[in-house]
Specification:
Chain A is mainly α. Chain A contains 22 helices and eight strands. Chain A has a domain of about 230 residues: Cytochrome Bc1 Complex, Chain C (Up-down Bundle). Helix content of chain A is about 60%, strand content about 5%. In chain A, α6 packs antiparallel against α7, α6 packs across α11 and α13 crosses α15. Chain A is globular. In chain B, strands 2-3-4-5 form a four-stranded antiparallel sheet. Classes of the chains: A mainly alpha (about 550), B alpha+beta (about 375). The structure holds protoporphyrin IX containing FE (HEM) and FE2/S2 (inorganic) cluster (FES). Chain B: Keywords: 2Fe-2S, Cell membrane, Disulfide bond, Electron transport, Iron, Iron-sulfur, Membrane, Metal-binding, Oxidoreductase, Respiratory chain, Transmembrane, Transmembrane helix, Transport.
Chain lengths: ~550, ~375
């Protein structure tokens, strides 16, 4: 052992000595070596995941402060705090302590509002992040599992938000629980017992706030934390994806090193997110529970809205006609099935299943099982972009339906009419969105071809010798051009016979789907085409040559 | 089209005019040349950027100080009425605003400062790093070997009885913890059938608790009603549970305009009807009475019930009419219940069908 001291590294600077002390005790230098200069690609769309992460950190922080004063009991007491309109009113400990946090703890109102705004930001950022991953194809191999982890996080975030929203035990939160209770009870046979178990008997009982509390401050945040750790671990293992462009290949990562640039930008960004949330919390009232009063099963406020992420199931419930053309409540051997509640939830459940399974669905259709580290620009995957647009529209229609009464009063139209329109949009909206998004992608791809072949419109007009005026087109430099031509031209993969020489029904369906995905496509410009376009100025033929529909039908 | 499953990234050059994939694509020109920023070439600009960043950090320091000034400097004393402009209320709002601004500036100053520092003064050369496979074939083979060794050495394969009993034990061991969930709640569903309404219980106003005379109920008015015996319940004897089932809406309608089925003829008092206020959809309290159309509207999902037809659903997601509470008047002229509801109130549950059957059996 003594021999090691002879060779021991002697740092000269003070920071060097501290680093050396830590390293010789904790052995961190391999980690510094691994991460210190790791390359991260930079793009504004990579920011949303970060925002979600930072919002979660702020939720942990503000939530811990709230937990110092929040009293998760339904024991009833008479309020004697400083908020006059509620003095002398019977209320639960939970509601009283939320009033107390709002009015008697200095900065408590700020903390509550910070917590609630962070919750909204968390779910919002998570959703946009998922959309980014979807539309750029970042979920493809090797990142399928991380997509699944992301989907789990999305569900957990919604549950976290709902459980938190229930805690203050005001009229709105109690009403939310009331609806959750009825949705549980709608589950055939076991649902009623699940509700009795959840509430410790009948709704509302005296148990639910305590149970929601332990779920909200321990179980769900712990699960979210675990999922985030797994998620980030996988990001490090896979390395980040990057957008296509000059110098960016499947085998490299182009970007900035963690230290110092990336760490500074990402770290700085945490403070910016915090600043935005603090500004919102300081200036904008959210969930003014003192206006609603403690939970009481009798009153309800018209026009009251759940948090936005609860909008889509609520809207789905609103759209379903419960008694038209007949009552949707069926009795089978004495068991009652409330289909008016169950039916609208089925498409939502299917949407979630499809969301989890999408990486495998797409892989099955395209037969593409390669590693993808370079992202797709959404226009270059028209089929996927169209599916995403349809799903988003489906979600958005239901979210709008949750505000149908507000839409009606705001635009002075009949409430029932709004519902009829939204019912139509529920079915037609996704189809239209699919068609429009696909057409738009194809149009954008053609425009890209046009730009590659003929340059960018410069806005300058030039007079030709024979008197004609034309706009000067500036040719692209090779870097810009490469950005527009570097994408994959997927082909239809027709149904093939399997090893036994048989084309299975499943395979036929896959073949049809593949055709549907890819029969209209626009190929990237090739060097020959570019040459041809420059040789003789026969613009439209060259542009048209990108569409392959005819050639594929053989 | 090539075999797409060999794991190596490749581009399928797809255009039909081609004679070879390689020829058919633009070559990757590589990273574009680095363009220096002003701060890279002009030391003055760099100095300016540095001063900007310093200023932002100073703003952050001032923001944090502002927080403490607002925290200790503003006293919110005395009762808070509402969000109207009484003295302590506006103090509270001001304090909340300044606390928020202080923290926001404290954070923005650091955040924007550091980002600005990174953008203007740290090197902005893009670097390239090679990717490695998630795992190499070699690693996989090694790992597999290790697993095989572990498996062999454990002897699980050679001693099936050992394996099977372990599986059995491992399945059973967690079950006690599922069992422990049993007492989360009771399983007697009959509580869902009954409310505290009963023969002779007075209808009283919510929340004042005063009884209602038939003559108080004028045409077009609506009363939010609870049973008189509700006030005997403390919060710990299920006050809210009972209230959640027992709330009732009371209205007088023109008897000529109402259709009443034969078995309900004596359930109203000269056109005064009482209906459960709990929506049959997912249980919101029905709060809106449109007196000219004789509709009850649920604010949650807009189910609309027609009072002239025993609260049949005419719009929205509810599938069942609101249960009616049979009422009459007592000797003093106050409205009282004739009995409890004849069916469970509120949202549907699977076992509700059996409840209805039994309850109607009881009633006959
Ligand atoms: C994981 C993500 C989380 C989300 C989405 C979330 C969301 C929410 C929401 C929407 C509320 C209602 C706030 C209001 O009154 O307006 C709430 C309340 C609360 N949260 Fe969270 N929260 C999260 C994590 C946490 C954590 C980690 C803790 C504590 C360690 C916590 C503690 C509390 C407490 C004590 C309340 C009740 C106090 C009050 O309502 O004023 N939360 N939460
Ligand atoms: S709860 Fe009344 S309509 Fe949904």
């Amino acid at each position: 052992m003594s021999s090691t001291t002879d060779y021991e590294y002697q740092p000269r600077t003070r920071s060097g000595r501290i680093a050396n002390f830590v390293d010789t005790r904790a052995g961190v230098s391999p980690m510094v070596k691994e991460f210190g200069r790791k390359i991260f690609p930079d793009h504004w769309t990579f920011m949303f995941g970060e925002v979600a992460l930072y919002s979660f950190v702020i939720l942990l922080l503000s939530g811990t402060f709230l937990a110092f004063w929040f009293d998760p009991t339904m024991t009833s007491l008479e309020y004697h705090g400083s908020y006059v309109p509620m003095q002398g009113v019977e209320m639960s400990g939970a509601y009283a302590s939320t009033l107390n946090i709002s009015f008697d703890i200095r900065g408590g109102l700020f903390l509550r509002q910070l917590h609630h705004w962070s919750a909204l930001m968390f779910v919002m950022a998570l959703s946009v992040h998922m959309l980014r991953v979807f539309f750029t194809g970042a979920f493809r191999r090797p990142r399928e599992l991380n997509w699944v982890v992301g989907c789990v996080l999305f569900l957990l975030a919604i549950v976290a938000g709902f459980s938190g929203y229930s805690l203050p035990d005001d009229v709105l939160s109690g009403n939310g629980l009331r609806i959750a209770d009825a949705m549980l009870k709608a589950i055939p046979v076991v649902g009623t017992y699940m509700s009795m178990f959840m509430f410790g008997g009948e709704f509302p009982g005296l148990a639910i706030i305590g149970r929601m509390y332990i779920a909200h401050v321990l179980i769900i945040p712990a699960l979210i934390l675990i999922m985030i750790v797994v998620h980030l671990f996988m990001v490090v293992v896979h390395k980040h994806t990057q957008y296509p462009g000059p110098g960016r290949t499947e085998n490299n990562v182009v970007g900035f090193p963690v230290g110092p640039v990336y760490a500074a930008k990402a770290g700085g960004f945490f403070f910016i997110v915090f600043g935005i949330l603090a500004l919102l919390a300081g200036t904008t009232t959210i969930n003014a529970i003192w206006n609603y009063g403690p939970y009481d099963p009798s009153p309800v406020q018209a026009g009251s809205q759940p948090d936005f992420y609860m909008g889509f199931p609520d809207g789905a419930l609103r759209l379903m006609p419960g008694s038209w053309p007949f009552s949707w409540e069926f009795t089978i051997f004495g068991w009652v099935l409330p289909m008016a509640i169950l039916l609208p939830l089925i498409p939502i459940a299917l949407l979630f299943v499809a969301m989890f399974a999408y990486p495998w669905i797409e892989r099955w259709v395209t037969k593409d099982n390669r590693v993808h580290n370079v992202l797709d620009r959404p226009r270059n995957a028209p089929f996927r972009t169209a599916i995403g647009a349809a799903a988003v529209t489906f979600y958005a229609v239901q979210m709008m339906a949750a505000s149908s009464d507000l839409i009606a009063t705001h635009f002075h139209v009949g409430l029932n009419d709004v519902t009829y329109w939204l019912r139509a949009a529920y079915f037609l909206g996704p189809i239209l969105a699919f068609i429009i998004a696909r057409r738009m992608c194809l149009a954008l791809q053609r425009k890209d071809r046009e730009i590659v072949l003929h340059g960018r419109e410069s806005g300058r007009i030039q007079a030709l010798p024979h008197g004609e005026f034309v706009e000067v087109h500036e040719p692209l430099d090779e870097y810009k051009r490469y950005r527009l031509v570097d994408f994959e031209d997927y082909q239809v993969q027709p149904a093939r016979a399997n090893a036994k020489g048989k084309v299975t029904g499943m395979e036929k369906m896959r073949g049809r789907l593949s055709r549907w995905y890819f029969e209209d496509r626009v190929a990237p410009v090739t060097p020959q085409e570019l040459e041809a376009a420059h040789g003789h100025h026969d613009d439209h033929e060259a542009v048209g040559a990108g569409s392959h529909k005819a050639q594929l039908d053989k | 089209m090539g075999d797409h499953r060999d794991g190596t990234p490749q581009h399928s050059g797809a255009v039909v005019t081609s004679d070879g994939a390689a020829k058919n694509q633009f070559p990757d020109p590589g990273l574009p040349p680095h363009r220096p920023r002003v701060t890279d070439v002009d030391p003055k600009a760099a100095k300016r950027a540095e001063r900007q960043v310093v200023l932002l950090f100073i703003i952050s320091i001032l923001g944090s100080i502002l927080f403490f000034i607002a925290y200790f400097g503003i006293r919110v004393d005395g009762p808070i009425y509402d969000v109207v402009n009484t003295e302590p209320t506006s103090q509270l709002r001001l304090q909340n605003l300044l606390l928020g601004l202080g923290i926001a500036l404290g954070m923005f100053g650091i955040g924007i400062g550091v980002v600005q520092w990174a953008r203007t003064l740290m090197p902005d050369h893009e670097l390239v790093e090679e990717r490695h496979d998630v795992r190499t074939e070699e690693q996989r083979a090694e790992a597999q070997e290790i697993l095989t060794t572990i498996y062999d050495e454990s002897g699980i394969k050679r001693r099936p009885l050992l394996r099977n009993t372990l599986i059995g034990a491992a399945i059973l061991a967690p079950l006690p913890f599922v069992g422990l969930l049993r007492d989360l709640g009771p399983t007697d569903l009959t509580v869902l059938r009954h409310t505290i309404w009963d023969e002779g219980i007075r209808l009283v106003r919510d929340p004042s608790g005063t009884p209602i005379k038939a003559s108080d109920v004028t045409l077009g008015s609506a009363f939010h009603v609870v049973p008189e015996n509700l006030s005997e319940l403390g919060h710990h004897d299920g006050y809210l549970d009972e209230k959640a089932k027992a709330v009732v809406l009371l209205m007088r309608l023109d008897p000529d305009k109402v259709n009443v089925s034969a078995d309900r003829e004596d359930w109203n008092v000269d056109g005064i009807f009482a209906y459960s206020k709990v929506c049959t959809h997912v249980g919101c309290p029905i709060a809106l009475y449109e007196q000219h159309t004789h509709h009850l509207l649920c604010p949650c999902h807009q189910s609309t019930f027609d009072l002239t037809n025993e609260c049949e659903v005419i719009f929205g997601p509810a599938s069942r009419p609101l249960p009616q509470l049979p009422i009459t008047v007592d000797s003093e002229g106050y409205l009282v219940a004739r009995s409890d509801f004849h069916e469970p109130v509120g949202p549907t549950y699977s076992q509700r069908g059996f409840a209805v059957r039994d309850m109607q059996g009881e009633a006959n």
